Amino acid sequence: MHIGHSTKEYYIGDAEVGDYRANRGQGRASIPMSVVCEEQNNSVHPFSPLTAIAAVLALAPYMAAGFFPARAAGCAQRLPVWAQILSPSLLCVPYLLVALSRGTFSWAWLGLYAILPAVIAAVLIRAGGTRSGWPEFLILGILGLAVDLRWFEPAWPAHLAVFNKVLLLDAGIYGFVAVRNLDGVGFDLRLRVRDLIIGLREVVFYLPLALALGLGLGFLHLHPFGLIGPVMLQFEGAWIFTFFLIAVPEELFFRGWLQNLLERHMGRWPALVTTALLFGLSHFNKRALHFNWRYVLLAAIAGIFYGRAWRRNRRVGASAVTHATVDSVWSLWLR
User: Fold this and answer.
1) Residues in contact with 172: Cβ distance below 8 Å, sequence separation at least 6, in sequence order
2) What is the domain range of residue 322?
3) Do residues 75 and 169 share a domain?
4) Which tens digit of pLDDT belongs to each residue from 102-153?
């Protein structure tokens, strides 16, 4: 019923080791060498201050643009053009810190995280005076495929692969929000009461349809609710994590950028439906080794309601409220 990614996707390394251990103990499987290496690597580097610093640096552009959008954009636009292009190359620093702390440094990956953000900035600066839209769609295609197909995740330890998503998000934010200054995005993490009302309204509209279809298809499975106190604490934690690390990034990409740009070329309703379909297709490889058509269908329908929440006042925060609430309900009681 999602839809986005569960937190388990970002911390699969330890879970896989545990699964293989259990299987080995029952004589059903042995631990593959890749998992052994990952486990040994985790034991050698249980926690690194450099990784913590890298996390702060990776999240800083995202948070700065979300909570201080006008100031963040203004700082970038006051720079000379050459500096606007070269500045996002600093996004390679989090990779450098993590790689040095884990002993996995590669000049190729460092170059990619330094050059790709600069190329994105250069393309979008040049596209600022055009009306064709193809440079923006090209950049969105590259970013979307890189995240969905996990092109760059081999650069990271399995349980730190979320760094890749955050750094590509930073590159997109810098390009579209700071230097391209794309209007109508609505990327503002200072939630308003209206955002909550609109976001939760779309949840109410979507849930009955999702429950009927998801349970009927066998995609959703009801779980006991549990005691209200612990459950609410668990829900709050899941909601906050999902909001900032899953819902907002995906809503910014699909609604703030993609649906926003498509509306200029095909109108409001075609853009809403097209974006929802693409959002659904981005889930084809989630929770399955084959084409997960049930996930795609439920995600595409969810995308309609996320898109409605965003376009009501053109606020990413509103659609992210819908998205985070749906994901949290799904992960706790309907997975």
Assistant:
1) 120, 139, 140, 143, 252, 253, 257
2) 187-335
3) yes
4) 999 999 999 999 999 999 999 999 887 567 688 999 999 999 999 999 999 9
